[in-house]
Amino acid sequence: MALLAVAIAPLPAAAQRDNQRRIGISLPLSGDVERLGRQFLAGARLKLQEFNAEAGGTADLAIVDDRCDEGVAALAADELRQSGVSLVTGILCNGVARVLADALQPDGTAILVAGARSERLTADRNRLRWKLWRLAPGDGEAARVAALALSKRWNGKAYAIVDDGTVYGRGLADRFREAMEEAGLPPQFQDNFRPTQSTQARLVRRLRRSGVTHAFVGADAEDTAMIARNAREIGVPLTLAGGDVLSILPFSAADQQPPDGLLAVLSAYETAATTDAAIAERFLAAGVEPEPYALQGYRALEVALAALGDTTAATADNLDRSRFDTLLGPVEFDGNGANMLPIHGLFEWRDGAFRRLDP
């Protein structure tokens, strides 16, 4: 694994500490998820180029390949320390985040986690004295945002929660149920079904017999769309909602798409289906594909560059106390280092595309 320097050759650590303008980036640049790492790096480089051109800056990047592997991440941490970085970002994998947080904690180096989503990272942060901030949404954010939005829309409605029994589907359904129960709106009916069947008509009929008019579905996009189509075919009036896996529906065959009215809690920028057209055009004009991880890379560099202080302590204080206005929306961290401002929102399927609904 080799360190890749961007803009200028690596400076000695002591020299770099004098100007605090080197940002470390740890990404999987080989292995199974290399493509995502490359996307992220393209977005990060775009922001760096803009920053140096607009502000006459001299910031540069020290880039390491962590392969999304904890053993390799330990080597990456050594290279980052030797390069004299004052902040490290990237970090798409949970195990890598923990390794880097442990390894760089004695130096006080800030770890800005832009991809890994485990809520344990911020739950353990203060106990382990990590200098860690999680820019990425927590893995329970989609369910919480769904409950916040649907508790208003479905108040007084008879609704069900159904799932396909998979780790994703059941986990999403359980987190949504817990959040709705906390809001005083428990489901009137719960059920599960076998995924990837040729029809889900039996489930639709069970929902009809239960008397519900709304249902939250913890399942993949194919099954959720099928349930919506089956309900229309049978003549059962059901309002359905699901999670962020539904973002692939605009790219599915026309006969596999749902009827209008399907609700989905999606990231506002992490999928091509929901990326703002003006942002996409800006990236394309710079020669960068506006892919989801490229957008994440750009945002991570926006926050990192804005947070850099004269010392590692000043950088940490900036991350703790500041609100960062980015191209993709504001960022602000709570006392555990979690981004307080959700990136998910409620969307409705209409005319072959998802359209964001007002909160």
CATH third-level topology of the largest domain:
Rossmann fold
Classification by helices and strands: alpha/beta
Examine the secondary-structure arrangement and name the CATH architecture of the largest domain: 3-Layer(aba) Sandwich
The CATH class of the largest domain is Alpha Beta
User: Unreliable stretches, pLDDT < 50, 5 or more residues?
Assistant: 1-19
Describe this structure in words.
- It is a single chain.
- With 359 residues, the protein is of the alpha/beta class.
- The chain folds into two domains: 4-136 and 275-332, 3-Layer(aba) Sandwich (Rossmann fold), CATH 3.40.50; 141-268 and 344-356, Response regulator (Rossmann fold), CATH 3.40.50.2300.
- It is 42% helix and 19% strand.
- It contains 13 helices and 15 strands.
- The protein has helices at residues 13-19, 34-55, 70-83, 94-104, 120-123, 125-128, 141-153, 167-182, 201-210, 221-234, 277-285, 292-307, 312-321; strands at 4-6, 22-27, 60-65, 87-90, 110-113, 132-134, 159-163, 189-192, 214-218, 239-242, 263-267, 323-326, 329-332, 344-350, 353-356.
- The strands form three sheets. Strands 8-7-9-10-11-14-15 form a seven-stranded mixed beta sheet, sandwiched between helices.
- Helix 2 (34-55) crosses helix 12 (292-307), helix 3 (70-83) crosses helix 4 (94-104) and helix 7 packs across helix 8 (167-182).
- The chain is elongated, with a radius of gyration of 22 Å.
- The model is unreliable at 1-19 (pLDDT under 50).
